[in-house]
Amino acid sequence: MIVGIFHPPIRLESFGGSLAVTVSIVNSLVENGYNVILFVRDKINQQKLSNVMGEALSNRIMVVVKPSILKSRSIINLYENAFKLLAFRLKCEIIIDTYSNYIFPWTDVCYIHFPYINNFRFKQKFPYLAKREGIVNDIINLPYIFFEKNFEKYEQKLLLANSEFTSKAIKESIGADAKILYPPVSTSFLEALNIYGKGQRENLVVTVGRIAADKRLEAIPVIANLLREKNVQFVIIGLLHNKETLKKLNAEIEKFGLIEKIKVLTNVPREELKKILGKAKVYLHPPTIEHFGISIAEAMALGCIPVVYHIGGAKEYTPKDFVYKNLQEAAEKVEKAIDTWSIREAKRMNKIVQKFSEINFRKNFLELFANYCSVN
Predict the structure, then answer these.
(1) What is the mean pLDDT of the chain?
(2) Which residues, in sequence order, are CB contacts of 6 under 8 Å at separation 6+?
(3) Per-residue 3-state assignment (H helix, E strand, C coil) for the chain
(4) CA distance to 12, 243, 255, per residue, from 270 (Å)
(5) What is the pLDDT of residues 24-48, one digit of tens each?
(6) Cα maximum dimension of the chain
(7) How many CB atoms lie within 10 A of CB 141?
(8) What's the pLDDT at 225?
(9) What is the pLDDT of residue 72?
């Protein structure tokens, strides 16, 4: 059987759940005797991929490279992906889309990080969507929205969701059922606690996220300023997506007089990230809605206690005692986490996320995929 995997942008610098899912699916299929074709926009640097993921893509796959001048996730990119997937279908017996979050009729298996159609319903919950999308974009979207809600035969597809939160959103928006398959956390992170952070740690709080407006990183200085315990340092780590956002973040840090307490590091290598997490007691996620939150799971693997927002997929696996609803509560939870941290607690955090191992992900995916193929 020839299986096509559709994931156009293999962006190694901005590692996330989407990339982890794609690499794991590709390699697990190859290892189990399937012929795999991967569709991408750019040539893949296997050495970089190995450095980021801890493994490269199998050399037994065929890679189809189709460059594009359109920005990924742009509104017109929706229709470009639709046509590229249709052409890709001619080369394959079954198509797996691990990237687009759309459900096209010529796709058999869709791994959904969050249903695209819910952008309309969730504009109040995702402020950046309301800013980015206007009437023109809504009109461009209408043909796809109309088709998906009225003509798709979801019972003939395998829909996979990255969390219970996403699965419920799929059910609410299109009435379809999706199996929950949590993204894999890299083995290099799950095993890193044996290398980093074995001893006592600093009163250090780490946040990881793209330096972009939608990540609401400007909330971190506010939370830091609310702490009663002043002997706490913060580090914000992220890929620089928007220089204006970085400028505003630094201005917010300066406004509260926290230049000596908060460092912002951009484009940090993954190995360096592990070292920093291995020094920290707390991982603080800003008040954004994460559909899963792979950076949170990675921090837990390094023994950090996660303080996370109360809406989203992260609260499905993080300790309930450290979930916050507002910034004042976030500050209180950070202080509690610092006081609570111990080597024993670090090992407990690591144990919680062991269920997201590569082995478990591949086993669960192959079972779901084999069952789907057997009835279709």
Answers:
(1) 87
(2) 39, 81, 84, 85, 88, 95, 96, 97, 98, 99, 100, 107
(3) CEEEEECCCCCCCCCCHHHHHHHHHHHHHHHCCCEEEEEECCCCCHHHHHHHHCCCCCCCCEEEECCCCCCCCCCCHHHHHHHHHHHHHCCCCEEEECCCCCCCCCCCEEEECCCHHHHCCCCCCCHHHHHHCCHHHHHHHHHHHHHHHHCCCHHHCEEEECCHHHHHHHHHHHCCCCEECCCCCCHHHHCHHHCCCCCCCCCEEEEECCECHHHCCCHHHHHHHHCCCCCCEEEEEECECCHHHHHHHHHHHHHCCCCCCEEEEECCCHHHHHHHHCCCCEEECCCCCECCCHHHHHHHHCCCEEEEECCECHHHCCCHHHEECCHHHHHHHHHHHHHHCCHHHHHHHHHHHHHHCHHHHHHHHHHHHHHHHHHC
(4) 11, 21, 30
(5) 999 999 999 999 999 988 888 888 7
(6) 62
(7) 18
(8) 97
(9) 58
Are 363 and 303 in a shared domain?
no
Query: Do strands 2-6 and 62-65 pair parallel, antiparallel, or not at all (unpaired)?
Result: unpaired
pLDDT at residue 368, rounded to an integer: 97
What is the percent of the chain where pLDDT is above 90? 61
> What CA–CA distance (Å, rounded) separates 222 from 252?
8
The boundaries of the domain holding residue 34 are 2-184+357-375
**282 & 363 share domain:** no
Q: State the total domains in the chain.
A: 2
Cα dihedral 150, 153, 154, 157 sign? negative
Whether 175 shows a pLDDT value over 80: the answer reads yes
At 202, which amino acid appears?
E
The pLDDT value given to residue 155: 86
Q: Find the CATH number of the domain harbouring 221.
A: 3.40.50.2000
